[in-house]
Amino acid sequence: MTKTPTTKDGFLSLSRRGMLQGAGALGGAALMGSLGLGSARAAPKKGGTMRLAMGHGSTSDSYDPATWDQAFVQVFATARNGYLTEIAADGSLIGEVAESWDVSPDAKVWTFKLRKGVTFHSGKAVTAEDVIASLNHHRGEDTKSAAKPIVAAIKEMRSDGDDTVVITLDAGNSDFPFILSDYHLAILPSAGGKIDTKSGDGCGAYVVQSYEPGVRASMTRNPNYWKSDRAHFDGVEMLTVIDPAARQNALVTGEVDVIDRVDTNTAHLLKRAPGIKILATTGTQHYTFAMDTRVAPFKDNNVRMALKYAIDRQELVDKVLNGYGEIGNDHPISRSNRYHAADLEQHVYDPDKAKHYLKQAGLDSLEVSLSAADAAYSGAVDAAVLYAERAAKAGITINVVREPNDGYWSNVWMKKPWSAVYWGGRPTEDWMFTTAYASGVAWNDTFWENERFNKLLVEARSELDDAKRRAMYEEMQGLVANDGGAVIPMFASYVMAHNDKIMTPETVGPQWTLDGFRAIERWWFA
Question: Which CATH number belongs to the domain containing residue 99 in this structure?
Fold first, then answer.
């Protein structure tokens, strides 16, 4: 077998994907604005309780990793749990619970060596059986996990002693170790082949003291955490504050130290507040208007194309994101991804072309409803209203339905025919497409089915010729853009804010919000 080191110069030179390319071009670092980089270089020190307010959370949230679907539970999960691998702030892949791994020449058989001395908060040692049970939780016919499609390629798993896991795939996949960093795939304690989804026990940096789903979580530092250069806060208080204005006010008044999802409409005002600093990172996060392609009128691709030409993308970037982002082209692969289709024709605002597609659908006009709420993303309602104003010139009436923030992800997303959605993106093309565009997967929120796309997705995953693989992914982007059910007008920066007591590393991960979901263990107080 071929040794696969966990450093840039080994494994990563073979299979860095997704945001690693573009993030590298951007330095992978945050856009600090008025931060002042000097503060980011201060040596970390221990102490204090960090208070974090997030624009996410639901009373239906739980400790079951199969159900995790938004940023509150994702940040909460990475604070208390360990994973086989971790995507570092600079986009490189490093081992976490896995100390190292080997791979067979055909990239089908992966052998992971577990780090010695890692224990759960309960004191139980992490073993290969825990890893196998944790991954199996997302496999099989009965699982409802959104991670099911990304582990579907696992054919067999076995332990080779307590510290070694051998995973055999049904086809080669050089991206496989990246997949194991997914926030669903937390390593949890097990018994009899079943993981503990009730207690909140984990092997991560922080130990749960209390948890009220959709409201708050309280944690203290794990005294036995093996990463000596992480987990600087003594404790962490996480709060769900859905309303953007209330969240920002809590930061300004000193009730919290950090907030996510800053409303870019008021970011310039927040930046002026004494002691407040804006932090923005650019990765693969994108905002969509997802159509249910199973139902009329969205089952007709001519209607879908009409709607794609009825939106002014740059206007949304300028007015909704206030410049914190860039235009999209109705597929989820950003310029930062390795196989981004740079030559794909850009969809632009063209009312006449939109009318042409309506005519192809046998329509002179169109009236549709679009559900939106700020729970989807800050400015989602404003984006929908701007969309409606521009679409009117194409003979399209968009009735914007202002949905309640509470329960948006449970009651609106994938329930209403057309809704505003945010996606964090994924580090690899295969991962993004497999999660949200493959036939029948849990998070295919447009319910899109395309035989050619699904065939290419499988073939590209195991294709070792880079030029051929690029051609496949570029064709897939074209299929999604020109046949898929998502209007994707913009890629948005993650915009966060914190007070001047908070210190961040010089490089802040752009893969997800809050330093790739890991601010709790990476940041510290001055």
Answer: 3.90.76.10
Say if residue 98 is in the same domain as residue 181.
yes
CA–CA separation, 69 vs 75, rounded Å? 11
Lowest mean pLDDT of 34-48, 99-113, 184-198, 215-229, name the range.
34-48
β-pairing verdict for 190-191 and 194-195: antiparallel
Residue 11 shares a structural domain with residue 157: yes
Query: Which residues 6+ apart lie within 8 Å of 107 measured at CB?
Result: 169, 172, 173, 174, 176, 462, 464
- Cβ-defined contacts of 304-307 (< 8 Å, 24+): 304/483, 304/484, 304/485, 304/487, 305/354, 305/357, 305/482, 306/354, 306/355, 306/356, 306/357, 306/358, 306/361, 306/366, 306/394, 306/396, 307/354, 307/368, 307/391, 307/396, 307/487
The mean pLDDT of 258-285, rounded to a whole number, is: 93
Helix 301-308 × helix 466-483 angle, to 10°: 90
Q: With contact defined as beta carbons under 8 Å apart, do 133 and 143 qualify?
A: no
Rounded to whole angstroms, the Cα distance separating 404 from 308 reads: 26
Looking at the fold, whether 352 and 275 belong to one and the same domain comes out as no
3-class DSSP state of 57? coil
pLDDT greater than 90 at residue 19: no
Angstrom distance (rounded) from CA 27 to CA 501: 25
In a domain, 223, yes or no: yes
Distance CA 8, CA 92 (A): 6
- Confidence band (pLDDT; 50, 70, 90) for 1? very low
pLDDT recorded at residue 520:
99
446 CB-near residues (< 8 Å, 6+ apart): 290, 291, 292, 293, 437, 484, 485, 486
Q: Is residue 74 part of a domain?
A: no
Share of the chain above pLDDT 90, in %: 82
| Ordered alpha helix ranges (H), 399-450 | 408-411, 429-436
Per-residue model confidence as pLDDT tens digits over 292-303? 999 999 999 999
Amino acid residing at 333: I
DSSP 8-state class, residue 187: B
Distances (CA, A) of 411 to 26, 242, 407: 37, 16, 6
- Contact 54/240 with Cβ under 8 angstroms? yes
Same-domain pairing of 245 and 272? yes
CA distance 479 to 454: 10
Q: Are residues 213 and 119 in the same domain?
A: no
What's the start-to-end Cα distance of the chain, in Å?
46
Report the distance separating Cα 95 and Cα 260, nearest Å: 27
Band (pLDDT 50/70/90 cuts) for residue 424 is: confident
Average pLDDT value for residue range 261-290: 93
Confidence class of residue 393 from pLDDT cuts 50, 70 and 90?
very high
| 154-159 β-sheet, strand order | 2-4, 98-103, 109-114, 164-169, 154-159
For 323-362, the pLDDT digits (tens) are 999 999 999 999 878 899 999 999 999 999 999 999 999 9
